[in-house]
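// run 5 | inverse folding | seed 20
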């Protein structure tokens, strides 16, 4: 909305449930959460381009976003998982959970790049306003009494004054930044359900679920004004951005990420601290991060998918190190697995794994709907999501059914699935007999085939397994696969495949198993 003309215009297309909003002054991009799509998104001011910044978990409810343009960081609250996280905006989108204990329903959040401190509200069982350093340390309660639904938060860092609005009490209040000298600016109990709050020095802008227009509050006089006409439906987050050129301030993280390999957070006096994405640990130099070894309580979850008769169950058995999945006598045209089955164990390499074997597509007498049901069940067995999807295909002639199998999985799992796929070839003995290796075989594939395209989309993540063979050879194959998955997880920040809510399998899973 232009505050000179009160003209508002939609910037992007349909979004089921946009809630939080913020603005990156450095790149002039809008950021918002869509709790319907379970995504963090960004777009330009002209509304021409928008992109997904981060796919969220199935239970995520992101009600608050704050951008630190100087340090290239995005902070967000998630009341679905009761966490507060930070994501880098340097193109890598590294994510770190910084608050996950003694937090219930975090909502509004504000960041201060000069001090490296975040402030947030929590409307859970013990409503409060808190603050902590960017890494979650030195956490401190600021306001703990007289709060019910502290939905909106705005801070004047020049004057060290904090403002907030409460959706249940109908109060808009302010205090010093340390929580002292608390005062009521507006009392609309029973008349308003405040949600969002934004500050412009001498005035506050706020959204109210009982009104279909933006409201303005003059701080000194306490006068309220309606901005524009009643053109909106339910208003949620709000952000104020003043026009004019923006001059980026410098922090210790501005140049080369402060020397950190992944996440740099600023500290006062130009100092920095390095953090690691979830699933990674900081090394002794306090700058580099490495993937954590899998903890016994968190198995490596692998979903095995593919066409009928390609050896999916055999791959599962090799990964476990013993026969746990039933295997047909011969591969071709036998249905093998007809139901999704999960086995969790420590394999012969000491890796704690959960393997989910799924029914093959095409080549059986099962209906597609039945197969979809079972693969959706496989996703449920891999909750909160598989770390990798192993697409199994047999070495040999690439058939029309193989093409259809790839189309089936890409169509039902969504475009983002290739970030999590490793292609596993079976029948390695055939190549040995012909005197070539798997890399020669991949090079020989038709460049226009869907298999070659899939391998390119997965950044050439593939490995070959033998149907039989010496245990040492199988160990080498498994070790190569796990190493490949580890590097893929590093790129995916150890985040599992959650799926896009519009993907057929995930949509089916939500409809069938929702509480």
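// decoded
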């Amino acid at each position: 909305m232009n505050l000179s003309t009160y003209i508002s215009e939609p910037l992007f297309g349909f979004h089921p449930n946009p809630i939080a909003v913020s603005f990156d002054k450095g790149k002039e991009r809008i950021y918002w959460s869509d709790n319907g799509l379970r995504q963090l998104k960004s777009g330009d001011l002209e509304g021409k381009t928008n992109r997904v910044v981060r796919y969220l978990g199935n239970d995520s409810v992101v009600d608050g976003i704050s951008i630190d343009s100087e340090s290239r960081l995005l902070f967000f609250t998630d009341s679905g998982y009761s966490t507060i996280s930070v994501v880098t905006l340097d193109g890598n989108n590294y994510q770190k959970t910084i608050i996950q204990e003694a937090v219930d329903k975090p909502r509004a959040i504000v960041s201060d790049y000069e001090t490296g401190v975040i402030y947030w509200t929590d409307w859970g069982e013990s409503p409060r306003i808190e603050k902590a350093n960017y890494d979650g340390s030195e956490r401190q309660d600021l306001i703990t009494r007289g709060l019910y639904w502290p939905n909106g938060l705005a801070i004047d860092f020049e004057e060290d004054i904090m403002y907030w609005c409460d959706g249940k009490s109908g109060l808009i209040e302010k205090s010093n930044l340390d929580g002292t000298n608390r005062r009521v600016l507006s009392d609309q109990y029973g008349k308003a359900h405040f949600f969002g709050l934004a500050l412009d020095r001498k005035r506050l802008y706020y959204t109210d679920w009982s009104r279909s227009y933006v409201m303005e509050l003059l701080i000194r006089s306490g006068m309220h004004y309606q901005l524009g006409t009643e053109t909106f439906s339910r208003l949620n987050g709000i952000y104020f951005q003043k026009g004019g050129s923006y001059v980026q301030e410098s922090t210790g993280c501005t140049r080369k990420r402060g020397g950190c390999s992944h996440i740099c957070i600023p500290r006062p006096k130009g100092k920095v601290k390095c953090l690691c994405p979830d699933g990674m640990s900081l090394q002794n130099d306090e700058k580099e991060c490495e993937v954590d070894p899998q903890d016994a309580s968190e198995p490596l979850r692998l979903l095995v998918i593919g066409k009928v008769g390609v050896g999916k169950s055999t791959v599962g058995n090799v990964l476990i190190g013993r026969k746990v999945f039933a295997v047909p006598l011969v591969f071709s045209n036998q249905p093998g697995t007809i139901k999704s089955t999960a086995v969790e164990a420590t394999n012969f390499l000491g890796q704690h794994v959960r393997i989910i074997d799924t029914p093959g597509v095409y080549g059986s007498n099962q209906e597609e709907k039945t197969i979809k049901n079972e693969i959706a069940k496989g996703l449920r067995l891999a909750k909160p999501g598989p770390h990798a999807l192993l697409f199994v295909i047999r070495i040999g002639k690439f058939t029309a059914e193989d093409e259809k199998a790839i189309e089936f999985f890409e169509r039902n799992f969504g475009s983002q699935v290739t970030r999590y796929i490793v292609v596993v070839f079976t029948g390695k003995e055939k190549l040995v007999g012909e005197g070539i290796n798997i890399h020669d075989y991949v090079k020989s594939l038709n460049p226009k085939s869907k298999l070659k395209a899939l391998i390119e989309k997965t950044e050439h993540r593939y490995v070959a397994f033998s149907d039989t063979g010496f245990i040492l050879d199988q160990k080498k194959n498994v070790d190569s696969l796990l190493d490949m998955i580890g590097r893929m997880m590093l790129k995916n920040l150890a985040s599992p495949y959650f799926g896009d809510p519009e993907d057929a399998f995930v949509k089916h899973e939500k409809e069938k198993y929702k509480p």
